[in-house]
Design brief:
The chain has 14 helices and 18 strands. The strands form five sheets. Strands 1, 2, 5, 6, 7, 8 and 15 form a seven-stranded mixed sheet that branches.
């Protein structure tokens, strides 16, 4: 099948759907590609909330900008930080217009939370399932929109560039252009051709690269891998944020997230002896930025030879705790843990990617007619470490920027109809799925053991050697096989793992989320903590 749309949007989280709604409003026809269903996305699992300056009596843009720069270890792009922080309030209004219901106090003001790294209470939320509230509201809006066609259970295999027209494309080719994508229809097993005047990549993160992750298992870095294979620019992949407090329950994948807002609410981290330990690592205690807290927990676990630590919220009022964190209360209770009486076992888990497809302030990638928004993009906002709850607001701010820019230039683009259809002649369905599933387990193990919270040159070199073998095996299998989602996801995970590892090897220092025992953290009063000296 061949399709033609003004816009091709690959990914259906907050970034993809808000962009689709904005360009549809301008009268353009949109194809929205979902690898599973509209409801399944990282957005849906986001608990904490959306960071925005709304209480002007105590908060201001400068404070939010400074908090973001500090958390990012001063590697953030100041222009990107200022853009997101200053445009956040207007995008909050947009979300409210789409039906998102943020919690309010009895007087009608927003009930704001505070999270690690924030100097003020500025997190808008909906109980402890803010992402699900946003996702459901946007899904309803998208389904009502007659200009948006939804393609569920469709998997983007490759973006279409001059390479598919027989031209040689390298990383030095100056005018690489995207004309759409080849997309696998999982119901028919056929790869369809989607031609578009503008393509948006909004495929989310890479958490499934690791065994222990808070991400849905569809977070396989598809967009990043596709753009990298198309010779696009990908940056800052070494900065993988491990959320400090995922619920420790062996066998769960993904891990259930215990939101940072619980620490903002007053929960305290303790070791298995019940002793507080964050005072040994940072004066901000449990509200230090995530990289410091995750390394502190990792250090305590290694010191005591344990698989987890505890998060203790038993000192707070029981009814208030249940009111603020109803989903966490119910989840833990289902496992026999009453968080109003029992401490919660927690351990770090791969959570968020701060790098990705490099884009400018308009969301444009290095490939013409291709934009990237959300977690798959590298805007420069997060630098070396994402400040809590800055991701959802980044997604809508950059979706807005990309929509405004692309609608201003799309009139000059036409369809490239000489693009050939996908050629799978001579390929067969893989006979042994065990080859794919076993390789996937190996990728997860390699990344967890060697490219985790604490790294070293030796570990990274070992990861390089192991991944290289898997890469060669998988590419050979892909060339002789009919595409399947499982095979394509494995291929993408290997590409992503390689990028994380290679860019980690290239950074000869410990900064933000990239911590290596071979290079000391640069001296700096803004970020140095005792966890970095161990």
């Amino acid at each position: 099948m061949r399709y033609e749309y003004d816009y091709l949007v690959i990914g259906s989280g907050i970034a993809g759907m808000s962009f689709a709604l904005k360009v549809s409003r301008a009268g353009y026809r949109v194809a929205l590609i979902c690898k599973t269903t509209l409801e399944e996305a990282n957005t849906n699992l986001a608990q904490g909330g959306v960071a925005s300056v709304t209480n002007l009596e105590v908060d201001n843009f400068e404070k939010h900008i400074n908090d973001t720069m500090i958390a990012g270890d001063w590697l953030s792009d100041v222009k990107a930080v200022e853009k997101v922080v200053r445009e956040a309030p207007s995008q909050i209004e947009e979300l409210l217009g789409w039906g998102v219901d943020f919690d309010r106090k009895e007087n009608g003001e927003f009930d704001l939370h505070r999270e690690g790294g924030h100097s003020e209470f500025r997190i808008l939320h909906h109980a402890d399932n803010t992402g699900a509230e946003i996702q459901s509201s946007l899904v309803a809006a998208v389904k009502r929109d007659k200009n948006i066609d939804i393609f569920e259970h469709h998997f983007a295999v490759e973006i279409i560039t001059q390479h598919h027209l027989g031209k040689i494309v390298t990383r030095r080719t100056p005018d690489i252009t995207c004309y759409g994508a080849y997309v696998l229809n999982e119901q028919t097993g056929k790869v369809d051709t989607f031609l578009a005047r503008v393509t948006l990549m909004a495929t989310g993160g890479v958490g499934a690269t690791y065994t222990t992750t808070t991400n849905p298992l569809i977070a396989t870095g598809d967009g990043i891998a596709m753009v990298y294979r198309a010779k696009g620019t990908v940056k800052d992949m070494e900065f993988i944020q491990f959320h400090p407090t995922a619920l420790y329950h062996p066998g769960d994948r993904p891990s259930f997230l215990i939101t940072e807002a619980m620490r903002g609410y007053g929960a305290v981290l303790r070791n298995l002896d019940g002793e507080e330990f964050m005072q040994k690592y940072d004066p901000r205690l449990s509200l230090a930025p995530r990289d410091i807290v995750a390394r502190a927990i990792d250090s305590e676990m290694k010191l005591h030879g344990t698989d987890h630590v505890y998060l203790d919220v038993t000192g707070k009022d029981a009814e208030e705790t249940k009111k603020h964190f109803p989903n966490i209360y119910e989840k833990c209770l289902s496992l026999g843990i009453d968080i109003t009486k029992d401490m919660i076992p927690v351990a770090p888990a791969a959570h968020y990617l701060c790098g990705g497809i490099a884009v400018n302030l308009d969301g444009e990638s290095s490939i013409g007619r291709l934009y990237a928004v959300g977690e798959c993009s590298r805007t420069g906002l997060h630098g070396g470490n994402r400040l809590a709850s800055n991701s959802l607001i980044e997604a809508v701010v950059y979706a807005d920027a990309a929509a405004k820019h692309s609608t201003g230039v799309i009139g000059g683009y036409d369809f490239r109809r000489d693009v050939p259809d996908w050629n799978d002649e001579g390929t067969v369905h893989p006979e042994e799925m065990v080859l794919i599933t076993q390789s996937l387990k190996e990728v997860n193990q390699i990344m967890g053991y060697y490219v985790g919270i604490v790294r070293s040159d030796l570990r990274l070199k070992r990861a390089w050697n192991r991944l290289d073998i898997l890469y060669e095996e998988t590419e050979k299998l892909f060339k002789v096989s009919k595409p399947s989602r499982e095979l394509c996801e494995l291929r993408n995970l290997i590409n992503v793992g390689y990028l994380i590892m290679r860019q980690a090897m290239e950074r000869k220092e410990s900064r933000g989320l990239h911590y290596t025992v071979d290079y000391p953290h640069p001296t700096g009063e803004n970020r140095q903590s005792s966890v970095d000296k161990k």
